[in-house]
Amino acid sequence: FLINGAREEIDHFIDQLLQSAEEEVVSLPLFCRYLAMTVYFATVEYLDSIGCHADSFWPPELRPKSNASTPEEVRQYVRQVVGQAIELRDCESKKQQRDLLIQAIGFIDEHYPDESISLDRIARKVNISPNYFSAMFSQEVGQTFVEYLTSKRIGEAKRMLRQTDKRSSEIA
User: Fold this and answer.
1) What is the dihedral of CA 55, 86, 32, 37, to 10 degrees?
2) The dihedral of CA 103, 105, 106, 107: what is its sign?
3) H or E, element range at 65
4) Residue 19 CA to its chain's centroid (Å)
5) Contact 143, 151 (CB under 8 A)
6) CB hemisphere CA count around 30 (13 angstroms)
7) Which of 52, 79, 89, 156 could form a disulfide with 47 if both were Cys (CB 3.0 to 4.6 A apart)?
8) 3-state secondary structure (DSSP) of residue 2
9) C-alpha separations of 125 from 69, 93, 120, 141, 169 in Å
10) Cβ-contact 16, 35 below 8 angstroms
């Protein structure tokens, strides 16, 4: 759930989690505390695996407490912990996406004169699929890869026409 779940699905996830145990067990305070601890440690381990080290910015109120001893207290605690984890996951994902985009744009800006530059080549350079790169680029930059590359080349051609003695045929 931490990998693919959405914020609006948290309550359904908690219901499934609690329903997977017998009702007499769920009502035991020890089980409730165990469940809260298990969710906490699984969440911290997941966040560490994606590069979000929970111990450095995890709010103290989300650290496990011994007072989560009823199903409703566990439900509330798990909702907070998983909600925070999803928020951090989404933030980290956007950061990684932004870093890839910055790397790709840097590569384009450096290699735009190269006639062999292509969407596939850049996607390979940043190690993502061409389809994903194309969609991400268009969404974040506001123009397609080809439009961006063409704009970059035209801008350089304009600069060269104004600032150099080269003829337009040479620049073209």
Assistant:
1) -20
2) positive
3) none
4) 30
5) yes
6) 2
7) 52
8) coil
9) 51, 19, 9, 18, 32
10) no
In angstroms, the CA 160 to CA 167 distance is 9
Instruction: List the structure tokens of 30.
Output: 């020890």
Spatial distance between the Cα atoms of 36 and 93, rounded to a whole number of angstroms: 26
Q: What letter represents residue 96's amino acid?
A: Q
| Alpha-carbon span 107 to 72, nearest angstrom | 52
Distance CA 94, CA 97 (A): 5
Residue-wise pLDDT for 16-59, tens only, equals 888 888 878 888 888 888 888 899 889 888 988 888 776 666 67
What pLDDT, on a 0 to 100 scale, did the predictor assign at position 104? 92
Query: Which of the 8 DSSP states describes residue 7?
Result: G
Distance CA 46, CA 88 (A): 11
End-to-end CA distance of the chain: 54
- Burial letters 16-32, b for 16+ CB under 10 A, else e: ebbeeeeeeebeeeebb
